[in-house]
Amino acid sequence: MEKLSIAWLRPWPRSLAANAALVAVAAVCARPTTTRPVGAEPDIRIGLVTNGTSVRLGGEGRVAAVVGGRSQFRLLPGEAVRVTPEGRGIRVAGDAGAGRYERLTFVSLDRSRFVTVEGKPYRGVVDVFVGGGALTVVNEVPVEAYLAGVVNAELGRRTANERAAVEAQAIVARTFALKNIGRRSADGFDLRATPADQAYGGVAAETELGRQAVRATAGKVVTYRGELIETFFHSTCGYSTASPEEVFRWGRRLPYLRPVSDRRPNGHYCDISPRFRWTVEWEAETLQRILRRTVPAVLGIEGAKIDVLRDVRVHRTGPSGRVIEARIGVSQGEVPVFGPDLRSVLRTPDGRLLGSTAVQFAVDKRDGRVQRVQVSGAGWGHGVGMCQWGAVGRARAGQDARTIVTTYFPGTRIERRY
To answer: Which of 110, 114, 274, 275 could be a cystine partner for 380, CB 3.0 to 4.6 Å?
Structure first.
């Protein structure tokens, strides 16, 4: 494993970095607090496993398992234990440390090696405890080290001429992280490691280019009138980003979240995306079967209402051209489907969400009945905020990270917080 000596990628949280010799004792004595000195890089707690029934923990090097400031047992390089929930505590099975504990913190004793969760290495420390009768596994790590495991997990592995896009992703992801510290504190962590918050893959997701991008933007965030903004990003806008009221239930208008064209000379910046344009087709029987499941689940309308399909059409579009209301014609009238629900209601034949709400319908009818429906779509994802493939295209065109970010979030500024 490559040894990273640069300070911005500390392998342990800030509270543990000061004294490597005492790390096993200090691991649970210093937790991130809600109030931090101005200019200090915070730590963040990422939920790696929730509602778990079993998890394997170990390390690339030597690892200490700590409780209440005292080392309970140690693992040799490559050694691991299996942890399961038992009542309000956890049960450890393995050659070392077998027994029951209230909770454990796993700490690497070798600065160039990392704790592993199901074989995947993570910087910082790893806490294991029971919440709601199931296992919760949390990775506590400094924000900058966290971001090194986010940027390429979100943006994919990029090349040197796309570095500005990676830097833009780092700035936006950092803003999201700092804005949402404490978001899920009731569950014992700040953010999930999934796209529900931000995709985070730990050390395995890092690249040298990603680490460079995080380091080059260290502490930089997006602000509007001095406050951290609500950052959103998605795979591919298709032609224009969207406003929140088109695609989200909360529908709150924010001055820096409004439709932004992705047009460039002779095309669009995101037309390099493999999901720039796409189509989905349903035979009438297949679509009816899908709607009889999704309409009750999503809209709360009785599935029996979907008896005979008469039509599927766009009723209204929003500022970006996305569908904000579609209508499904049935024998008793029409079922309205609003933008935030469209992707969940019109699932694909294999059960996936519809790619986006930037769609057009082509309906084949016979004797007033639908025979086949084809959707032609643009882009992928909700469409709000930064278009990730558009950012890559802009980077290739020579735009820097600041230009990319402030284009997708108009009226904002890039500021350094620490």
So the answer is: 275
Give buried/exposed letters for 37-70 (b at 16+ CB in 10 A, else e): eeeebbbbbbbbbbebeebebbbbbbbbbbeeee
pLDDT at 132: 87
Residues 6 or more apart whose Cβ sits within 8 Å of residue 5: none
Q: What is the pLDDT of residue 68?
A: 83
Q: How far apart are alpha carbons 339 and 321 in whole angstroms?
A: 11
Torsion angle, CA of 133/135/141/146, rounded to 10 degrees? -110
Q: Which are the contacts of 270, defined by CB distance < 8 A and separation ≥ 6?
A: 236, 237, 238, 262, 276, 379, 387, 389, 390, 392, 393
| CA atoms within 13 A of residue 119's CA, in its CB half-sphere | 0
- Per-residue model confidence (pLDDT) at position 26: 39
- 378 with 360: CB under 8 angstroms? no
- Residue 99 backbone phi and psi in degrees, to 5: 155, -175
Q: How far apart are CA 373 and CA 217, in angstroms?
A: 47
What are the structure tokens assigned to 334, written together?
A: 């029409």
Residue 32 pLDDT exceeds 50: no
Contact 134, 56 (CB under 8 A): no
Residue 255 near residue 286, CB atoms below 8 Å: no
How far is the C-alpha of 259 from the C-alpha of 99, rounded, in Å?
A: 56
Max Cα–Cα distance, the chain, nearest Å: 80
- Would you say 241 and 195 are in contact if contact means Cβ atoms under 8 Å apart? no
pLDDT of residue 5 exceeding 50: no
Long-range contacts of range 338-347, CB-CB < 8 Å, 24 or more positions apart? Answer: 339/246, 339/247, 340/247, 340/248, 340/249, 340/251, 341/298, 341/299, 344/294, 344/298, 345/291, 345/294, 345/295, 345/298, 345/299, 346/290, 346/294, 346/375, 347/290, 347/294
Q: Report which residue type is found at 15.
A: S
CB-facing half-sphere around the CA of 195: CA atoms within 13 A:
9
Give residue limits of the domains in the chain. 7-215, 277-378
DSSP character at residue 161: G
CA–CA separation, 326 vs 183, rounded Å?
33
